[in-house]
Fold each of these.
Amino acid sequence: MSSALLLLFTCLTAILSEAFLPPHPSYISCPHLITHRHQSSISTSSLHATSNEGYIQVPRSDGTAHQLAYKIARPMSLTSRQHYPIVALHGGPSVPSQYLYPLEQVVPYRSIVFYDQLGCGKSDEPSNLKYYSTEQSVEDLKVVLKKLGVRKFHLYGQSYGVILAFEYMKHVASNPSSYSDDDDDMKCLSAILSSAPSNVKQVEEEYVRLLVNLQANNEGLSDAKLAQLFRRNHQCRLEEMPTLLADAYANAGKVWRGTDAIKDYVASQPDEDAARMPSSLIMRGEHDFVSEDCAAGWKNAFNTKFLRYKTLEGCSHHGLFENGKMYGDIVDSYFEEYD
């Protein structure tokens, strides 16, 4: 085994558990629903002084229904026509939404809809893999929007949430007839896609390249210290992992998770006759393991000219924690353009 492959084998799990989640062994043998709720030690009272929360049922084709947990920050502003709400999509797959809660602190005025996708956080975690896919997650998002009465909104996705946001926008552009007359005024006004590759295999190769470079420049480091160095360089550049972020990873789902769940994903354009997708901002950190080349592929996946790129100076994968004020200013000012 080459030194690069050996390094990948020994370190990758520790590193990816704090970025995209690592592949997880398939141990699922029974199709029944697990109604397990992951418990969190986080107190979010300071983040959500005013919020609504609850559960929404999402169906599957075999007649089953599963509960998704949601939380709405500033619910009184959900129907505002001055500052349209943000719908926030978390990463993983299966890292629960709580690590995105600081958006409320750095983006003023707007309602923000958070929800745990199927299989993580406070949402149901079915044991059968047939209930999971990005396509089914798109359908779940449509149900969440309709049940909460969200009409015009901005999409925000982080890490895997970017893939879900893109596939939702692509689906809407390609299938306008799939919406009823009641949904005519439902519209995604714009989107921010933060720290995700358009090609999953490409970012996995980037992991290896960055690891090998770190090893070459830091001879003699143990695997654990090398993984920690990778984290501080390319995933979250704070000395210690923020509690919200660490707790989200600790409470990640176990069934459908990590790059193994989406290993063949490559973003592609909708058909030529599709409607134009919303204007979008592609963000990544200067030191992000989602490199500039990894993010560049989004340009070829959108069918709109209104696509911008922004590199966050001094940040890596979690700019929201590394420089919250700058991050929030960028998010709010971009969405304000499309209100």
Note: The first strand starts at residue 51 and ends at 59.
Amino acid sequence: MCRGNSTTSLLRIMQMSLFVTQERHQPIQVSHHGHASFQHFQPLLPPLTMGWTNHSVVTEFTLAGFGDRPELQEVLLVVFLTMYLINLVGNVGMILLIHCEPRLHAPMYFFLSHLSLLDISFSSSIIPKFLLSLLTGSRTISYRGCLTQLYFYVMFATAESFLLASMAYDRYVAICNPLRYTVVMSQGLCLRLVVSCYAAGALNSAVQTVAMLRLSFCASHRLDHFYCEGALLFALSCSDTSINDVLMLVFASCTVGTTSTATLLSYGCILATVLQTRSPRARHKAISTCTSHLSVTLLFYGALAFMYMRPGAKRSVKLDKVASIFYTAITPMLNPFVYSLRNQEVRAALSRVRRKALLMCHRHRGSF
């Protein structure tokens, strides 16, 4: 009896479905057992699943880079490889020089060694992958690889911004309050400042990367750049990126606002102190200790400002690539040379190390 009622109910449901879909589909045939064939429901499935097929699972992106100029690939490989090797040699050499030379064991050079470390790390998060794509011709990067690259380059760029501000504060204390310099810029304070720089970078990159995980990508997976740049990833997403835009704006504003304000205030006080100094020799010494840091700061912020502070209507993909080359490859390569050429203490330390190396070579030859 119950089986008969269930069969009757099923037949009524089938008849209602037939009435709703009779203008679009063939009549549903029910077998003598009261079961409808599944193939008659297939026309109903596409409308129900259409929204699911729009969002494909992204496994990789294509970094277009400079693929529009195939005749320049070999030249670009040689140029970028040369710049990257100079970057490694110069910054590693600066770290070793500061570590080995006792006269450079001062707060200023402690910060400089970490600046060199950040320059190496920042370039290494982008340039090796680009060199590999130029060498092999494969321009794809996995989804995880793209997010990993985004995490590390945002972290190192943010940390470098705060480190440059810390170095400006160090110069302020050295020039405006020289008698208390060793007390104020203690080893503990310097260590806390450096750790805070890395922590700020890690926080910013973690927030940006986690926010990126919520995005879906259903359009083209082609990035017209040589690394995974956040704004271009937003443009490829078919999800609502308003949260990502707000997070990027807030963190970028806090980073740039905090670091630039600290740097401007420090150099404002330094300028006032220098103008009040009557001794030309003391004034020249104060200026010479700041020119290296000021040059590096202008290079770093100048490239970033050109990259991100232009109006959208005037944005050019080619100019963005040029600016990216400048602050990912050229600026890290130039930083050790700026400090070695414009800083008397670094030049003197290089001379002492060179003399020690030559003396060791002569002794080594004399022993044979």
Note: The longest helix spans residues 242-276.
Amino acid sequence: MERVVGLVNKLQQICTQLGDTAGNSILVDKLSSIVVVGGQSSGKSSVLEAVVGRDFLPRGTGIVTRRPLVLNLVHVDDEKAAEYGEFMHRQGQKFFDFDKIRQEIEDETERLLRNQPGHKAVSPVPIYLTVYSPLVPNLTLVDMPGLTKVPIDGQPLSIVQDLEEMCRQYIKGDNAIVLAVTPANADLATSDALRIAREVDPTGDRTIGVLTKVDIMDKGTDCREILLGKSLRLKHGWVAVVNRGQADINKKMTMVDARGKEQEFFKGMDQYRDLENTGTDYLSKKLSTHLINEITRKLPEIQGYIDKTIHDYQSQLKALGHDVTGNRGKMLHLILTICQKVEKAFNKIVDGGEGGGERVLEVFDVKLKEAIHKLPFDKILTLKNVRNTINEADGYQPHIIAPEAGYRRLIEDGLTLLRDPCERGERASQLTCSCATE
């Protein structure tokens, strides 16, 4: 079944390359995935690093993860094998230094966001990273940017809505397993992860809860009731973990030492000593088993959907006719033949009278004229606007030189006004023709 997990991950990568992503999906929403959601500073990144056993995610204040990271973990049987990572956008290049993996995540994020219109702070386009290691389970996780309640300095005002909408796109599908990461030392009633998980999964059938920062809960409090399923019940339960704090990270505490410290904590606490669902090891095994079970259960449905989609596309392709020849002359002849057929079909509709030609005539001879007469050309051609436009475009010049740039700008402004009614007329004409042919 581990090979099936890898196959699903490859399908997800192919979908991304073809532009088939969450919220704009043909196939990707049919594939099972574990999506990690949580508020900023909830310990989400620390959970992922603990599962991998390596420091490799960007760190800092504010929004650190600004694009979804699809993390594919591949278990290597050889215990002495070197650990390394590969990015989909850097195919063939192996990263053995995990600090360079972190830097590449930051660089690739900047490359995309820098080229986006409007210089957005976040993007839903994922980064694909595969980590090969003898220390990891076979598992695929999608790390989402951390949710926030208010924008901080330097963040756009729309950031709260942008982050939540992106998160919803990835977890709204029935095949998305939501890993809701919540700090145990905060009020769970205000948890961003639980709130957004309940929006798309109100019954909790697709949600697994993770409690972080259990070791720094207020004195006299614990999360035993939640772990036992007596409070805030989820179908797949909760798991408590203890990750490295910032002081531990500053001291360069290794992941092995961190796992040992975590085990000591849970074994040393009467509230947790008898509970099974504690620790990163338990979480890793639970997620791997759960993902494999979900893929196994959904496999017939995925196969049926792929077969049906292929059949539909083949039917559409067949309806388009034979293959286009590579001969330039024959290709030109084919294009001219298609244009003639379109022209004849349009003429037939226009000459067909009621239901065809009359409606097309009404679009261009009546509605378009009315729309053009209502356009505010008078605002463009006021003496003040003409003077300002010409001065801005050409500056002050002798009268014998025509202000060409200014005239051109005035004409462009007028054409911009004409665009919308003309496009509406063209769409209405197309609709009329399609209705007449059906």
Note: The chain has a mean pLDDT of 84.
Amino acid sequence: MEFCESGGCGVSSLYGVGQVGSKHGHSSRDAFARRAPSPSPSAPAHSQSRLMSSTVRYVLIPANESDPIRELELSVPAKLEDNLGALTKALNAYYAAQTGGFTPEQREALISTMRKQVAEKNKDSPPPDEAMLSQVALSQTVDIVQLLPPIAATEWVGVSMYVDDKGVAKELPTNRRASEVCTQCGLSVQVLGDAFVARAWDDQEGYERQDFRASDLASDEAWVKAARQCNESRGSLDDAARRLADLNAPRATWQEPEISLDDRLERAAAGRSRGTDRFKVGDYNAAIKEYEAALALLQPAPADFDAAAGGARVDEMRLPCLLNLAACRLRQSRPFEAISACDAAVEIDATSAKAWFRRGQACSALGQHEAARKNLLQACKLAPSSREIRDEYERCKEVAAAKGPSIF
């Protein structure tokens, strides 16, 4: 990892930064992201992760405001497996070198906090091995803040910020400029210590790192506006739980009780079909309305419903609606609501590979890599022949490995 030569390029809209340490004046205001290269006609779609160059640029935002923002270069490994963890590996080394180790007081505080967290999550298990506890608590890893999610609406281009995950323990200073970038992207995040910003194209089948330059941090960049729109519509876990609870709220009768079960199932099937048609053309809001309307016809069943006679038919219709609803929420970058839909799907059928798979994808989107790995592993066991699931699981393992060991 090396710094590029710094010049004096002034960008007035760059959150009051003044001078930017780069001699490059590139701007992407005409398009919020540079697209992935056109695939070779002879190459299969899933293999389009080839790289345009052996290096890519990314940006360092120092916490010290007297230091200029700088562009850096990352050597891109040829192998996908090495490429996925290349940046986090480089940044782990940077943070270890720049911020050093821990004082005895910081060390003990970290281990004590980790010990309490493990005890709370594993109340019925024996105490963890102290050596492993220390290793995990003191390991140098990078936290990733997803500024722009790689979804269809962004042409699968994402922008992420990387920070030292031990910033609080190391008592690192607030990074005002990086925190303001997060604010402009619709996120309430206080960044501590030096921060890095990078871009990548990732459609879950291919992966390519792309240049991100200092000028791309300007607040009027199209990708910043797109990020703000995505993040402001993400919702929260409480919102998702409240929505699902309302959908499943106990009622004395079916919605529109005069409709027979057969007619109810027929109308739900028609709604599901319309939702799928809207999903295929990317109209996720319309698809969600159809799926939720179908679910409202079928849940919850009244107390006098003959579950033995019709329960299986109802669940057979509810399950795909919930799975499709989760898929929509993933496309909208609303992972909390995707998880809620998957939870309900698993309650209906714990052998549904799609439910585990999509819940794993949602956990990945939230940066919960260990939870994602467990869900994706279960999906692999249930659908061992699915290449899509297997590839996602391997990708998740690489990211989890780059984050460091976990004892949860």
Note: Residues 1-52, 404-408 have pLDDT under 50 and may be disordered.
